[in-house]
Amino acid sequence: MGIRESLYPEGTTIREEIDNGEFPDTALLGRTLFDKYNRSLVIAGLALLVASIGVVVLSRRPSGK
Q: How far is the C-alpha of 36 from the C-alpha of 40, rounded, in Å?
């Protein structure tokens, strides 16, 4: 069993496109990100959210005299 058969089962849209000689760039990228790397993607998004909130908090000017 090759890598195409194990990653993309028979009858899926991506498998049909690959078998037809087309390379579904966006669909393949999206499917891979959300199927294989979903947890990593969520953790990276959370880290970016925390970092951007930290930047806003740290860049405020002091409200004192």
A: 9
